[in-house]
Structure formats: C-alpha cells, structure tokens
# Entry
Amino acid sequence: MFNRDTWNEIFETIQKNKLRTFLSGFTVALGILIFVSLFGLGNGLINTFDKFFQEDATNVLYLFPGKTTLPYKGYKSSRRIEFENSDLADIKKNFPMFLEYVTPRISRNRLVKFEEESDNYTTTGVDWGHQFAEKTIIMKGRYLNVEDIKKKAKYAVIGRLVEQDLFGSKNALGKYLDIGGSVFKVIGVFQDDGGDREERGIYVPYTTLQLIEKNTDKIDQIVVAFKPEMGYMGAMAFESSLDKFFKDKKFISPKDQNGIFIRNVADQLEQNQQFARVLQIIVAFVAFGTIIAGIIGISNIMVFVVKERTKELGIRKALGATPNAVISTILLESVFITTISGFTGMLIGIALLTSLGESLAEDYFITNPYINTGVAIFATLILIIFGAIAGYIPAKRAARIKPIVALRDE
Amino acid sequence: MIEIKDLHKSYKMGSNVLHVLKGINFTVEEGELVAIMGSSGSGKSTLLNILGMLDVADSGEYTLDGVPIKNLNETKAANYRNKFLGFVFQSFNLINYKSALENVALPLYYQKVPRKERQERALKYLDQVGLKEWANHLPSELSGGQNQRVAIARAMASEPKVLLADEPTGALDSTTSYEVMDLIQKINDQGNTILVVTHEDDIAHMCKRIVYLKDGVIVEDKKVKQVRASAHV
# Structure
C-alpha cells in the first residue's frame, strides 16, 4: 500500500488534476490559516489584557478622598475629605500585620527646566514604597530611600523620556533640575512598562514637596500594599476594615459611599481574569467553528471528487483494480493533499502571527499574537483525519459500484 | 475456454422485471474469434458484461479457462478480470488525463508489475498497434481510431485469456472500423480468443463464428468464412 509505485501513481494523479488538487488543498489550507490566525489574535488580545493589569503591583489598595453626601455626627454633608500625614502613621500603627508598605501620592504638574530646555511634567511626591506599587524599574542611579524622605532631600528620580527630552544624549545623573522654581538633584532615571505617559514623570520625596508647599501635611492619595500571601479573601477583608477605620476617623457616615474611595486591584484583577477567561472561551468557540466549517468544506470536496472520478474508477475496476485499491487511491491522495496544504496553511498562519508582533497593539489591543504549536498541529491533524473519514465514505461507495454502472455514467 | 450453461439475467425496472437473458448455453474454444450479433435489447451486451464479470448472472454456470466463476466478491472479480480478461469498449474508456502509454500500462500496475517493466511492455503493445510515436499523447490529442487502438493495446497488455470487445467499431467510420478489425484479426491470428459484440453484418463476417441473439436466447450459431479486413483497408 505504501510502496513507491503507489505514490508515483498518486503524484501523477495530483499533478494532472490541478483544479481538484487546488480545491481541496485550498480549503484545508484556508481553514487552518483562519483557525491559526483567529486563535493567535485571540491570544494577542489576552496578552494585551494581561499587560494592562500587570504593569502595576496587584497587592495594593488605592485610597482616594471624596466628598460626603450624608450629614453625620454634627457635620454637614458635602464636606470635602482630606488625607494628611497622620493618616499614614495611623495605618502603620493599626494594621502592622497586614502591611508591606504604605506610600502617599501627591501629584503636581510642574514646569521643569534644565539649561535651555523646559517642559511640563507630572511631578509626584512619594515614599520609597511607591517604587514597588508602580513596578518602577531603575535604569541608572537609585530610587528614593527612607533617608531621603526623612531628610526632606531635594532629590528627584526622573523618567527615561524626561532625560531624553531635557538632557538629549547627556547623562542626567548628578545634574540639577529646576522643578517649579526649586532646584532638585537627579539621583536616578527609571523606565516603566506602563508606557510613555509614565516615563514622562518625576518622583520626589513627598516630604520635600510638602515643605515647598508652605510645610503642609496634606496628601492626595494613599497607596497601601498588603502582604500578597493574604490572598483574595484577605485583601477584601483588609479593604473593608480600612474603609471602616477611615470612615470612623474622618466622621463619615458608614452608609456614605462617597466620603472615601478604595480601589482594590486584587478585586479588579479577579474580574479581569474572568473577562480574559470568557474571551478565551469565545476565541476557542470561533476557532472550533472554523474547524467544523473546514471539515464540512473538505467533505463536500471529497464527495465531488469521487463523483467526478466515478467513470475513471469504473475503468480502473474493469482493468483489475480491487475495491481496496480504489479506496486507497482516493484516500491516500486526499490525505496527502490535506497534509501538505494543512501544514502549509499552519506555517503561513504562524508566520503571519509572528510578523504581526506588536504592530496591532496600538489600534487593536492585540499584542504578540501567538498560537501554541501543539494546538496548531492538533487542529491540522483533526482536519486531516476528518478529511480522510469524509473521503472514506464516498470512496467506499465508489469502490462498491459495479464497473458496468460506472462505465455507463457518461 | 469459455463455457456457459443455462444463464439467466433479469433487471428490475420499477415494478416490472425485464428478463434479458433467458437461458444461454454457449461454448468458446481457445483461439476462436466469435461475433455476437443481435438487435438492440437482444441481450448481447448483458451477456458480454457477465462474461467480463462486470455484471453478475442471476443463475447458470460460467466456467472460464477451467475456473468456475461463482460467488465472486468484488476483490476476487477484480483479480480475475485483471488476470483473464481484456476489455475494449465502444467509447474507448481511456483515462483522459493519462497519456497513451500510461493508459496501456495501467492493467500492469494492478498486476503489480514493476514500473520499468510496465513501461517497456506497454510500449511494446503500443508498437504492435502502430502507435509507438504517439505514446506520450493524451487521448484528447488522438483520433477515434487511434484511441480504440490504444484501448486494444491496453486490453492486450495484461496478456489476457480472452479479449472482450463491446461494439469496438460502433463509434468509428467504416475505414477506421476496418483498421481496428484488421488489428483484432491479427491478434486472433496470434492465437488469442476474442469475442466481439456488434450489430454490423460486415464486422460480424470478419469473425470466424457468428452467434445470433434474439430476445435473450441464441437463435443461430454458425461458423463463417472469415473476410479479411485488410482487403478493405
């Protein structure tokens, strides 16, 4: 069945029936190509998704002050809530067993000058822990440390693009910057996976920023990092006790939803992962549909092929082809074509995905689309096997036709 | 060579049963050239198809070269056809995407003859029918007479015991008909047994024996003096 002669016969048949070869080959190649592309693009979407929510630490709570909507304990409603340094100390004092670090965040838009160059940048006053909350990566120099905060040092850590904008090709480390009228020494340059916006930022000690602003102790936001081993449930519990603590301290009604806001990344992460899972299911469903369509396509073509060859098969039978020879002629030909074209389609699909890379990231939220090679090969094999099964049924019928009937079929 | 006894065959046509062969008894010796004649519907093609194992009789005995032909499954029938029989059809039945040489070599492929030997033998038979120069042409590039000669070469390539020709000249003009008959006579001269179904008197008289069929029975079976086709060419 698998000798060279059989294959010669098959190659000849394939070569001399180009339309037929093209039709079945094209269907399979296209089916696999679409499957691989869809699956890959879906994976790319999930990639983007993961990236979105992994640029910042996931074990943090963000606390924002709001405005009360209910009167409480003698305070009127519409009172603006503010955070101050004592809140940081209270968190550290009351929840030491949950905490990894706490950092405030005071954001200001400041004109920043170096020699002739100047531009507006977001300057954020932070504590040392902020590096981990934002997953800031230090390229050179160092981040702010405990000493800098305590001494209210006039140090700045600048983004990669700030250095590029203001210093050009020069090294910013050790140089002095004018930030909103005060002079800061550059002690570090960072990069951030969060993108250009984050890399156009400057970090300074929050204590220094407060000192410049008439020695205030107000804080915009508080970032609280909890111990990751607490897990999702622990994070939720910690969130509600923080909420209770601050509502109590700031005299906000427990029923007031707007006095203080807590954004829980763990909660969001859970939701997002759920969304990504749904996305994956949809992608798998569509891809599965493509494969089914491919199977139906190849089945139709096999029926057509056998129908077209009825007379030829009758002649072959009259000349002494056994039913098995007839079936194997049809099947080997079909399996050969589907295998070659299936794997061609698969390779084209993989090449296509690889060539896309990051090019769709900006507009279509698809980053590095890829398909697991195992999945691609599995889908291709499925199509080949079902193509063979779909071919076997009409082939068997053709093998059973009496030659005389087949020969009469003009 | 061929021995049939009390052969019956009927076809179902909706609710009607068409009794085509009503008890045929018939013997052919080795080296004979027999014409089977009859008007259309007399059952001559059905008889040939049963002899060729392309169709199965309802009842009766059939012995071919001492081998009783019965209880055939498809595989067995295919092997017998391949070993014992060569076919020539009215409409040539060549495979249209294969060249003349490949068509002739096809029965040898099913005899599992190695490729090289296959090609050599096919070329030899093409040469015998005078088409050696046309070996690599497709059937569509050949005339009707040439196609029929390719078909005869193909039928002879497997060196069958019996050559069965179903209206071999039916699709040809008289000049090419005689050329084809000349070829068949020459093959018969070499000692091959040949059965020719025809409804043309002149073709029948180029055989050595004529069997007349009418309404499914043999009405006449006579030896005739062979007219050589070469006289007409």
User: Anything to note?
Assistant: The longest strand of chain B covers residues 16-28.
